[in-house]
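Hello Y.,

Per our agreement to keep a running log of every chain we model this quarter, I'm adding this entry. I've kept the format consistent with earlier entries: sequence first, then predicted structure.
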Amino acid sequence: MAAPLLRQEMNFGDIEYSRIVGAFMLAYTIMNGISGPLIDRLGTRWGYALCMFWWSGASVAHAFARSALSLGVCRFLLGMGEAGNWPAAVKVVGEWFPARERALASGIFNSGAAVGAVAAPPLIAWLILR
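Predicted structure for the entry above:
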């Protein structure tokens, strides 16, 4: 939804867009393997907090992106922070919930991503039109 407006406003094409998406996926892929051991080392609370802090800061940085390159850097940073969500969430469920409640807890945190994926596009479209 937002991609055509971003392309027009920042004046970039398909190749730059693919690089922006690729930057996020590269960081997410690399950090998926690093964030788990990092969370194990720091502990769930501090590890998850660090990931959320990084993720939030990277999200805010998107507001300052003015080119395909700066948007790609922001997306890379976002991918780095966002990758810690799933390892941390699984660890939280394992540590904080009794065995008989873990499937429900996992279902709830996994549902959040699905609900967000369904709710976000119309919300973003509405915000763009405003």
